[in-house]
Design a protein that fits this description.
CATH topology: Glycerol uptake facilitator protein
Largest sheet: none
CATH class: Mainly Alpha
Number of strands: 0
Structural class: mainly alpha
Number of domains: 1
CATH architecture: Up-down Bundle
Radius of gyration: 16 Å
Strand content: under 5%
Length: 214
């Protein structure tokens, strides 16, 4: 259990360091990475961490994903708090490292709505529904192509970050939003980055679990 929790912390830290690091460096470099580059960075780091840590911890690297798996009985409820704590610790450590290297730049990649809260909340629910639906398909259904899971999930993250990022930040991950918010002290509408992803993941996991039942 300890090794799995450490793995979750490392995986989440790598996700936040690379993803929000791309946002920070894009700000410093005057847009050298670009919005598309940031979206691709998030997608690629997620795919990489699934390949690197999936066989140890399951590569949840997201409290909403852990919740989705628990609701559908693909993960024990008693281990959920340990995974959540590990993921949050990893995110905070990554944001702390970025702060030490670059200072507080670009709000450390914090997710903040550019439109109304209801727009971003709705987007986060739908985006995380789609992500969790894909994860359930690739991780829990033996009919899917197992080796392609990391690619499919990473592509989903990149796609959603690409089109929805300018509005809600396309977090889909409470830990990813918490780390930058804590280090930048920017808690603007932070609640929706917990409610949205948790709700979307719960619905997405439940719907796919129902669909795959014979």
């Amino acid at each position: 259990m300890l090794k799995r929790c450490v793995t979750e912390a490392i995986g989440t830290a790598c996700l936040v360091f690379a993803g929000t690091g791309a946002i920070v460096i894009n700000e410093i470099s005057g847009g050298a990475i670009s919005h598309v580059g940031i979206a691709l960075t998030f997608g690629m780091i997620v795919a990489t961490m699934i390949y690197a840590t999936g066989h140890i911890s399951g590569a949840h690297i997201n409290p909403a994903v852990t919740l989705g798996f628990a609701i559908t009985k693909n993960f024990p409820w008693k281990e959920v708090p340990s995974y959540w704590i590990s993921q949050i610790i990893g995110a905070v450590l990554a944001s702390g490292a970025l702060t030490l290297i670059f200072g507080t730049v670009g709000n450390m990649g914090a997710t903040v709505p550019s439109g109304s809260d209801i727009q971003s909340l709705t987007l986060e629910i739908i985006l995380t529904f789609i992500l969790m639906f894909v994860i359930m398909a690739m991780a829990t259904d033996i009919r899917s192509v197992g080796g392609a899971a990391a690619v499919a999930i990473g592509m989903t993250v990149a796609l959603e970050a690409m089109f929805a990022g300018p509005i809600s930040g396309a977090s889909m991950n409470p830990a990813r939003s918490f780390g930058p918010a804590l280090l930048s002290s920017d808690w603007s509408s932070h609640w929706l980055y917990w409610i949205g992803p948790m709700t979307g993941a719960a619905i997405g996991a439940t719907v796919y679990h129902w669909l795959k039942k014979e």
